[in-house]
Amino acid sequence: MEINVKSKDNQIIFELEGSLDIYTSLDLKAALEEHVKGENLDVIIDMDKLTYIDSSGIGILIKALNYVQGLKGKLSVANLKPAIEKVFKVSGLTSYFEILSPEDFKNRSA
Hints:
Blueprint: E1 2-8, E2 11-20, H1 25-35, E3 42-53, H2 55-70, E4 74-78, H3 82-90, E5 98-100, H4 102-108
Parallel strand pairs: 2-3, 3-4, 4-5
Antiparallel strand pairs: 1-2
């Protein structure tokens, strides 16, 4: 998996490409810990190029949400492909995460 990080003002965008699974979830955890250090940050995980997610990936996203909220920040996920959105719905994550549509993401990251 590739992780591209973009930072502007109090917003950090993590662009994920490839698979978020047992083999790569710790890479995302490390990137989050490296870049998300301040309070009141707007963190967006862009999944436009994410092709697969497993339970380890889901676990890291939940830990990331708790970590960012602990810093009084906001974490959103954006650009979910239909298969990944289905995983979010089936596992009940849609009630925990703010999910941004492509248009919402474009407006928020402008």
